[in-house]
Design a protein that fits this description.
single chain, alpha+beta, Aminopeptidase, 3 domains, twelve-stranded mixed sheet, globular
Amino acid sequence: MRESNESLQARVLALLKRHGWNATSFQVVEPGFSYWFDGEDACVAYVDTGRAWVTAGGPIAPRERLGEVLTRFQARAAEAGRRVCFFAVERRLLEAVPLQAVAIGEQPVWDPRRWEESVRDSRPLREQLRRARAKGVRVREVSAEELGAPDSPVRRGVDGLMAGWLESRRMAPMGFLVQLAPYEQAHERRSFVAERDGQVVAFLSAVPVYAREGWFVQHLLRDRRAPNGSVESLVDALMREAAREGRRYLTLGLAPLAGAVPGWLRLARRLGKPLYDFEGLRAFKGRLRPHAWDRIHLARPETGSGALLSVYDALSAFAQGGLLRFGADTLLGRPLLLVWLLAFLLVPWTLLLALPGTTPYFPSRLVQGAWVLFDVGLTVGLFSLVRRWRPGLALLLGCAISTDACVTLLEALLYNVPRARGLGDWLVMGVAVLGPSLAAVLLFWARGHPTLRPA
């Protein structure tokens, strides 16, 4: 008889309480994971992408068994026709098992018993805590029963924070280790809310790291109108409670692509800024004065696939259903990203228009120069719109691009069509006419999108 999911999670939770050492170890009892057990004292939690088994950290096993458990897990994956990669691996596993690894970021670590010292030595941190108190923000721990009651004010407040957070994201919702699941295994968690005038303005959920006698802050959400210092006040409350209990370890989790990562990942960090504020997240965690930064890795077997394929497998695990679908959902659900893509593509197009070789497509050099200047202005306007969305500017740019489409069509019909000599000429005309037409439709559609409406 097939074991129920609840029974599997109970077995995994019992192992976690004995061997759960990775910062992300508790998250494997949340929905979406499969489990491979090796005897009664070891387990590997993974996501099956269809081509690979992507693990959440290392095995849940005694330290002396890490090597043999991973070897058997790799063999089982090979039998199933799957590659293997290990995500969010810490130095402990790399020292115990021969693996190829690439650094993918850092996570900040605190000893809660030294938190008071950190607050005392950081004037900005003290000021943030003072601001929150002055604005009437009060922090309290909430029980699993209060958080679990669907009709409780706290539950409704946290649900509202989650809905707002998801709406504000530049990417489609992800799974694997970043899904929102603050109500799973609620009795094992520590949850705090920051309230102002009886309303929940920020929320923190921490999960245990059993083998390190510590906590991992998994969820940290705030309302965009929450007073400054609300989030810092939540962290302060958890730190002080952990110190009171004698806890020795606390982390806020991975700051992806932070620190000394390879050059191609630094490039990804730079290019991915419109999707994710990597530097901002690292800076926020740094302001809380961590006592150390632990490097986090993506690892693979020594005889396994290359680093790029492992990155692809890990991204597929987060994407829940395939990278193509995730990309489409992200574009259609986050119109600001489409606007950024439009601005990005306009840069090489404008450079192409400015080249001497494109002069024959224009009635004169003066007309060519005018189009180049016009497109430079559009590019600046679109990047400004991405930086800060303003409906009025979006309307202005939409009207300008619509005019662009009409004038370009007229110029093509009167000047370019009679002079067209081959497929290349027709292709250039098609792009020149269709490009601004689609861009105008995009901007007018984006103005009415729920994620960009004024609050």
